[in-house]
Amino acid sequence: MAHCDGLVLLPSGSTVHVVNPATRRTLTLPPTRTTPPDVGPVVNRFAPGAQAFGLGQDPRFNAYKVARFYTYLDVRAPATHYYTAKMGVFTIGTDLCWRDTAAAPPHHQVMPHRTATFFRGSLLWTVVQGGLHETPLAPSFVRFRLEDESFSIVPAPPCTPRFNYKSSRLSELHGELCVCARAASDFGVLEMWTMCGDLDDGSHPPHWDLRRVIRGPFSFRSCMPMTATPDVVMFHFATYYLYNYDLQSPINNDLIEMKRLRYHQLGTDKFVEFTEKNIADLYVVPYVPSLVRI
Predict the structure, then answer these.
(1) pTM higher than 0.90 for the full model?
(2) CA torsion, points 126, 130, 133, 137, in degrees to nearest 10?
(3) Collapsing DSSP states into helix, strand and coil, what is residue 124?
(4) Which residues form the signal peptide (predicted)?
């Protein structure tokens, strides 16, 4: 899931939905390409498997774009192969079908099925360690500027001893780009890094500052900050849990099991509990209602 200005992105395989819960309107995008384009003398061309979506606003035209980062594998004679990375874009209210960007994205593989983080007109995906390269890459994020549909690489924070791709999460928190990374020496310790500076300032590149070190009563796994106040940060972790961390008094924290929460059932206008058989995964996004049309 992803959220931007009251719109929620719900990708599932080759099907992508954009929903506005406030207006109860749903837009189903045209199916994404399931077979790669036929170009060159290819012996075998494997359909896209690794893909990741994102939703954001193009500040130049005040338009909302859905982006799809995907790769496919070409096997050419004699016994050679290579990966190709592509970026597909669908502009809501303008495009009738998906289109690939004129510029190719960096030859990296991003974390599959993990939606991009929207931050100040750009979408950012976490690069897979190793990815499409035989030699390890420096920890980084692929940045896609929605305004001109250009690409760049944003370095990850200098976590010690090394940035953990799978357990870390990138998010926008009160106008700042924030990374939560689990400490390598103690899985019960979480480092919160924030980016200082402008991504587009070539003369003064942005840098990462270690904002907080949080110690929890459990092992942090894939922990993501969802919202924050000057006194409290709420995290989503281990699929089913929310953790309300009090920055002023760390002993006064709340652990919420989302499977035990009730939800508003629109058909009956009642609050009901989840049933185990109906739950595969639970996703959480910070949401601000809006009347954006789709």
Answers:
(1) no
(2) 70
(3) strand
(4) none
